[in-house]
Amino acid sequence: MFGKEESIKALNEAHAGVYGAHQSGPKLQFQMRRMRYYWSKMVQDSIDYAKKCKACQYHANFIHQPPEPLHPTVASWPFEAWGLDLVGPITSKSLAGHSYILAVIDYFSKWVEAIPLREVKKENVANFIRTHIIYRYGIPHRIVTYNGRQLSNSMIDKLCEKFKFKQYKSSIYNVAGNGLAEAFNKTLCSLPKKIVSKSKRDWQERIGEAL
Question: What are this entry's molecular-function GO terms (predicted)?
């Protein structure tokens, strides 16, 4: 039988420890079960603990306007369609000089790949698509990006032509057009803030923990 002190210690380890990613209450209790913890009030204790986490409260999304409906891209099988997006420039550069995060999410499985970048070059983006999508998961049917020059250029066009997949472009002012990628980017931006050191500049080393 868990006492109060033991349960708080277990919750802290699951929520903010080595394997914790500052999950919400329902996800936290699921993580506790995976770690083979259980007590009668574990679900409610998990919800209460997550609500009181200072890092979660401080870095939570602050909604300034009513949510807009997203326009999801429907995928019929894993790795058929990906949403590619760029986060940055990030105000606090990493110790290694990174200012951006390039991330891609599979529309079917919600699997994510992400890398830090010092600068955004078309060569970096093309190489990311080739090594982190095509070589790992096969040639996709389509990739959705915003219509900016970093993600939409002649090098990407040549990559599409070579591997026979399509690039769909949403307006840079219409984030709903690539809704899943945009929604994940909010999560990606908030999670490292909760788990990085006090200097806030080791975030490039903690991206994997946030995925």
Answer: nucleic acid binding
